[in-house]
Amino acid sequence: MRAYRAALLRFDDEGRPVYDPDGLLVVGPSPGASGAPGPRSATTASGVRVVRAAGAWSDLKDRFPGVVVEHLPGRLIAPGFIDLHVHYPQTDVIGSPAEGLLPWLENYTFPHESRFSDAAYAGQVATFFLGELQRHGVTTALTFATSHPASVDALLGLAQGRGLRLIAGKVLQDRHSPDGVRDETEQSLLDTEALIQRWHGQGRLGYAITPRFAPSCSDAQMQGAGELAARYPDVWIQSHVAENRDEIAWVRELYPDARSYLAVYEKFGLLRERAIYAHCIHFDDADRALMQATGAVAAVSPTSNLFLGSGFFDYAAADRQGMRYGLASDVGGGTSFSPFHTMLAAYYVGREGHTKAGLSLAPSHLWWQHTAGAAQALGLSGVVGNLQPGCEADFVVLNPQATPLLARRSAQAGNLEELLFSLIVLGDDRAVQAVHLAGGAGLDPAA
Ligand code: GUN
Ligand code: FE
Q: Measured in angstroms, how far is the CA atom of residue 253 from the centroid of ligand 2?
């Protein structure tokens, strides 16, 4: 076992922050793994280290005699961040300007993704991508690959070696897609099932059935995806919905009888728990209620929505209808791997008050959306995204003195919300001093 003394941030079951200004985090093998009795989550991966205790230093210091304590004065320990929606093959598409989503896909994204038919190329990008996630403090991600099955193998094989928690899927797109990325209906479904069997539940890895979006998938492909989703209920589903007005008009032409864009996914059995839909901007209350009723969740992607000019996620309406959500980078429509940048952009989106109600999201609520709230969205509460006892020990050590302005501003923070907001507004990868992975290959095995 090993312990860390610093300021410590966790969340309670209601999503409220729990803060110990002088805290202790004790990390070690899962009690179940050592043969001792203890609760063990069904979905906690075996062989990973978990949080054994978390709380005030003064309460815990005598309970773990002999455990080495690393003292981190002036630092904040917080849960590793969760990115609910990202495209690893779009790492090099960041910053491609376009007149909105559809030209961006056609002119930059599809041509670039066609390069992932080359497994060596995919591996090289995957290595860089995983390094960026880790450097920025992201310890769990739900990511698109491309339509090439080998692009999933490249990513998940490398993630396994690092001990990251990665969920990924081969993109399904058998129509309205150019040569090089378009797949074949029947083969795409066979490939998806083979990948589920190869990767889902291997250590910390998971699989997500990945219809790109309704316009790019034939009815037969959507039907097949829905059948797989029913047959493998703990496999994730990821897609896009209601991002852009031209996209929505296109879906209306393709499905004139559907009540809404979201209803198309419902018709094919693609709304359920563990289904994560990026964007969910141009929704009405019936759509939000359908998300709530089915257990599907929104991956709010604010830097992408601002960059592509897609629109503004309506937080107040989501809360009114009980629709759940968490935060995502959506790289490469999104512009940054940094959870701080994403949280700040979410704050801007919340403030926007001309197309919807504007509100001021609390810093701790922004943080929750990228940690414990995102874990809840994935059906992984109590497993990742938090530092309560039993959680897998993914955490970041943050340095509020990392830059002159951040040091100056954070020193004047009078409470937790002000401290978190100084990091959200002024922080970036320079504030991430260390990233600890519960499954960490190559980390001290005695820890
Ligand atoms: N809709 C369909 N494909 C994509 C994609 O790659 N990025 C975004 N932002 N929206 C999409
Ligand atoms: Fe996306």
A: 22
